[in-house]
Design a protein that fits this description.
Elements (H helix, E strand, L loop, with lengths): L7 E3 L4 H10 L4 E3 L5 H6 L7 E4 L9 E3 L5 E4 L4 H6 L1 H6 L1 H8 L4 H4 L4 H5 L12 H7 L27 H7 L3 E6 L2 E6 L19 E7 L6 E7 L10 E9 L5 E9 L6 E2 L1 H7 L6 H14 L10 H21 L2
Parallel strand pairs: 1-3, 2-3
Antiparallel strand pairs: 4-5, 5-8, 6-7, 6-8, 9-10, 10-11, 11-12
Length: 328
């Protein structure tokens, strides 16, 4: 049986107290649902000496509707709460779908919005037991000096595995971040770095507190996910697509964001550019899907071959855009 390593558990009762605890204990890790963190602790993929619980921080829970039609979602709101919220389902169905495709009902009742947005990058050469990794020799993500996937390079290629992040970026969302020194708001896309180890741009002791969704304003959006099984699994590919069409059906704005192919949610700008000024007809969709597949560069750090996953980028982008075209 794999057991948790020893750690100090701090349970603050408010946001200010949580930020103070993260400042007081450098290297402390915040935990809400713990659905990804605790298994990692058992496999010794992480060994923080202090965990700061967010379970008792009321400022991080709930979904707030604003007068301008925007929505603020607390980082500790569970995925199950997100899926069942009528405003999210009605206005942001792509986000609700992405949340519903995460793991299982049991996990979604514990996992949180902030946890999924900040979920650790994954790699088949890293996400193993401590004995397995020691036998192979430790990699960059484990604190060594070499990437087992690309030994000739100097960076980690572990992939982003968040389902919510591609959708948040495609929707033009922002995130609110806080630490003991104050708070700031940034575009959701700015939260991520193209580095499998330092994959978040958060500063010391900084905590994601809210996901801020802009008014829909006619935006169509969807999310599709490729995985080995119909549930439980992390994405081998996630495709978030969003588009705004004018009165005659011409695309005026487009966003296509991929998960599971890079160390951050990967925006395929070449495909987006091909859609601007075009109707979402089969020819335009085929061209954009081909451009997306051409720009994506999956690596051999997840299940299924890179060539197959690259091919599926074109297939899933095409399906997502066809779904947007069919929205009345």
């Amino acid at each position: 049986m794999m057991r948790l390593p020893p750690f100090t558990y701090v349970r603050p009762s408010g946001l200010a107290e949580a930020c103070a605890a993260l400042a007081e204990y450098p290297g402390a890790v915040p935990v809400a649902g713990g659905t990804d963190l605790y298994p990692k602790l058992k496999r010794r993929l992480a060994e923080p000496s202090v965990l700061v619980s967010l379970a008792g921080v009321p400022e991080l829970r709930g979904i707030r509707e604003n007068g301008d039609g925007s929505l603020a979602i607390g980082a500790a709101t569970t995925l199950a709460e997100l899926i069942s919220h009528p405003t999210v389902v009605a206005r942001y169905p792509a986000l609700a779908r992405a949340a519903e495709l995460v793991s299982s009902p049991q996990i979604r009742n514990a996992a949180t919005v902030g946890g999924n947005l900040c979920v650790d990058t994954r790699c088949n050469r890293f996400d193993q037991t401590a004995d397995w990794r020691a036998a192979l020799r430790f990699c960059l993500k484990a604190g060594s000096d070499i990437c087992r996937l690309a030994p000739g390079g100097g960076r980690c290629w572990a992939v982003s595995s968040s389902d919510l992040a591609p959708v948040a970026i495609a929707l033009g969302a922002q995130v609110r971040l806080a630490n003991a020194g104050g708070e700031r708001v940034a575009p959701a896309a700015a939260l991520y770095e193209d580095d499998g180890v330092a994959y978040l741009t958060t500063g010391p002791g900084e905590l994601l507190t809210e996901l801020l969704l802009p008014p829909v304003d006619g935006l169509r959006a969807t999310y599709l996910k490729l995985r080995l099984r119909g549930s439980i699994d992390f994405p081998l590919l996630g495709v978030a697509a969003a588009a705004r069409l004018d009165a005659d059906g011409t695309c005026t704005e487009a966003w296509i964001v991929l998960g599971g192919v890079a160390s951050l949610p990967f925006r395929v700008t070449r495909a987006e550019e091909l859609l601007i000024g075009q109707r979402l007809d089969p020819e335009a969709i085929k061209a954009a899907a081909g451009a997306a597949a051409g720009q994506a560069k999956p690596m051999e750090n997840a299940d299924l071959t890179p060539l197959y996953r690259k091919r599926m980028v074109g297939v899933y982008v095409g399906r997502a855009l066809a779904e947007l075209a069919a929205v009345s």
